[in-house]
């Protein structure tokens, strides 16, 4: 491991007696983590059906370590959205945040969606999840992961925090800032992070973090919580960022995070003042826990009267614009969608979250669930819609046995010759939805989204 001399000197200074243990942790194999998507399947049930070598991650209720040779990204259950592959320590912020159904949640630096997909699962289809990333290309993978996970109540954006703050004043109950950082905690997992490291890069990221936090604060309701996390060790990006923020925001205070075996705490002596008890924050070290490096802080915005109002989004779609969907619903669905949330935009039908602000002028990748396309005489359901459904919600099912190659053939976009009712079918494996197909004559026409095909 070729660590920069200046980095070694800095870590020796921070860790003192513990430095040798830290360095030895680089000789250990990196760990592989998988987080079960509880929107689709219960954690214990997944443990029973998954053909992987699983070991529970002790501080993550739905997290498992898997063996490298399991290749879970190649398994059809991955395509059914049953889990997300994520480094174990990176699961910590969403696990500790205390998201509750009906919360309005913002994930400000969200791509590619490791934490957003869990925040969405914890909302259980209620409230609203706004997932944003400043990088338009990274926001595209974020959208895919949100759709694959079956999260239906989300807005996906690619904006600056400053611009967002004009649209969502004191709107959110909870905001996660998983900040861009110098990535020191990922050195063992990703060698390229080492090459990009310099003392200047630490200062560069610290400036960005200090720039993001005040805008996040403006979007949080009084009485709401803001979580700040990084995957780096440097105090300038962790304790010092938090103490600087608290110096400038007297309406905020640090909230305590729980303790688990192997957790270390943040250090007040590593911040720029002794005014705040940084031991309420959490530090994860690769020599103390089976995971990489992470820092997590929880901030509480004190209660006060909110004076901020946001301009409400008004639905402006009349039933006749989506009448083809109503026919589709009668013929194929066992659920009825709330008419007041259906919105047609450019011949696409969306199921919108409730009580959202006007979004005009923002770089939007998705508002709500993209259900499908309104064609002249018919409705064409989308891949995202298939991912949001359970087997019970659709009338015609083609259930492919996981043991046979028809599952992979379907995911590759091939036409199958299998039994099925005429018209639209929800294709599942072991009753977990994968996508749509349309039965005509004796063939099952494959409607799996071409951009997501199995490679
Ligand atoms: C640590 S990564 C986020 C990882 C993500 N939360 C996950 O769990 O998959 C930080 C992200 O912040 C984004 N970013 C950088 N500067 C930003 C800014 N000023 N506003 C919003 N996002 C920003 C980057 O594009 C990057 O995707």
From TrEMBL:
Transmembrane segments: none annotated. The active site is at 231 (nucleophile). GO terms for biological process: RNA methylation. Gene3D superfamilies: 2.30.130.60, Sun protein, domain 3, Vaccinia Virus protein VP39. S-adenosyl-L-methionine binds at residues 109-115, 133, 178. Residues 1-302 form the SAM-dependent MTase RsmB/NOP-type domain. Keywords: Cytoplasm, Methyltransferase, RNA-binding, S-adenosyl-L-methionine, Transferase. Coiled coil: none annotated. It comes from the Bacteria. One of its GO terms (molecular function) is RNA methyltransferase activity. Belongs to the class I-like SAM-binding methyltransferase superfamily. RsmB/NOP family. This is RsmF rRNA methyltransferase first C-terminal domain-containing protein. It comes from Vallitalea guaymasensis.
């Amino acid at each position: 491991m070729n660590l920069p001399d200046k980095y070694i000197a800095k870590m020796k200074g921070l860790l003192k007696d513990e430095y040798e243990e830290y360095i030895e942790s680089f000789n250990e194999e990196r760990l592989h983590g998988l987080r079960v998507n509880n929107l689709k399947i219960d954690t214990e049930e997944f443990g029973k059906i998954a053909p992987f070598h699983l070991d529970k991650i002790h501080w993550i209720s739905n997290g498992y370590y898997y063996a490298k040779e399991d290749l879970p990204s190649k398994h059809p259950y991955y395509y059914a959205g049953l889990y997300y592959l994520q480094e174990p320590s990176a699961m910590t912020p969403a696990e500790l945040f205390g998201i509750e159904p009906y919360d309005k949640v913002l994930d400000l630096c969200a791509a590619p969606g490791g934490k957003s997909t869990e925040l969405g699962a914890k909302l259980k289809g209620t409230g609203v999840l706004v997932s944003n990333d400043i990088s338009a290309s990274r926001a595209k993978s974020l959208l895919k992961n949100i759709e694959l996970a079956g999260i239906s109540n989300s807005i996906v954006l690619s904006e600056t925090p400053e611009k967002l703050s004009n649209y969502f004043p004191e709107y959110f109950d909870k905001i996660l800032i998983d900040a861009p950082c110098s990535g020191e905690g990922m050195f063992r997992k990703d060698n390229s992070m080492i090459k990009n490291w310099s003392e200047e890069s630490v200062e560069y990221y610290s400036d960005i973090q200090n720039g993001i936090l005040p805008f996040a604060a403006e979007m949080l309701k009084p009485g709401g919580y803001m979580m700040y996390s990084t995957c780096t060790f440097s105090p300038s990006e962790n304790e010092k960022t938090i103490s600087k923020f608290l110096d400038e925001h007297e309406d905020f205070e640090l909230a305590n995070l729980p303790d688990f075996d192997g957790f270390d705490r943040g250090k007040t002596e590593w911040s720029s003042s002794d005014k705040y008890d940084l031991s309420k924050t959490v530090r994860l070290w690769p020599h103390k826990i089976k995971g990489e490096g992470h820092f997590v802080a929880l901030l509480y915005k004190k209660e006060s009267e909110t004076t901020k109002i946001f301009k409400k989004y008004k639905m402006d779609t009349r039933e006749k614009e989506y009448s083809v969907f109503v026919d589709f619903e009668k013929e194929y669905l066992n659920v009825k969608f709330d008419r007041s949330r259906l919105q047609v935009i450019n011949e696409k039908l969306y199921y919108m979250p409730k009580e959202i602000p006007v979004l005009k002028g923002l770089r939007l990748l998705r508002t709500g669930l993209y259900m499908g396309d309104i064609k002249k005489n018919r409705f064409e359901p989308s891949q995202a819609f298939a991912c949001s459904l359970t087997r019970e919600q659709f009338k015609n099912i083609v259930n492919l046995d996981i043991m046979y190659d028809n599952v992979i053939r379907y995911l590759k976009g091939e036409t199958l010759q299998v039994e099925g009712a005429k018209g639209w079918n929800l294709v599942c494996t072991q009753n977990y939805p994968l996508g749509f197909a349309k039965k005509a004559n004796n063939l099952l026409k494959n409607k799996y989204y071409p951009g997501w095909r199995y490679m």
